[in-house]
Amino acid sequence: MTRTLTADVCVVEAGSGGFGAACAAARLGGSVIVLEAATGVGGTSTWAGVKNWEPVAGGTGLCAELLRANEPGSQTDVPAET
Asked: Can you tell me the distance from the alpha carbon of 82 to that of 76, in angstroms, rounded to the nearest whole number?
């Protein structure tokens, strides 16, 4: 079965660079498609167990937004901080 997807931006691979690019494009209002061959995102850093951010009280930025977006009852479309 062939399926056609349309978006403003297509990011191939969801390592730290690709994931960041996809998030930036979405924050700027673009529709984004991310293609990833692996079973998860984050690239080799993730598979090696590298932690770039720990959720702590007062955490801000993209990592905090993603954490809040995954909390039970949260909206899936979390607006960027101003």
From this structure: 18
Q: Mean pLDDT across the stretch 51-77?
A: 69
pTM for this entry: 0.63
C-alpha distance from residue 60 to each of 3, 26, 35, 40, 63 (Å): 38, 18, 27, 23, 7
Each residue's pLDDT tens digit, 13-46: 988 888 888 988 998 999 999 999 888 787 887 7
62, 23 in Cβ contact below 8 A? yes
- C-alpha neighbours within 13 Å on the C-beta side of residue 13: 5
Amino acid letter, residue 35: L
Distance CA 43, CA 20 (A): 12
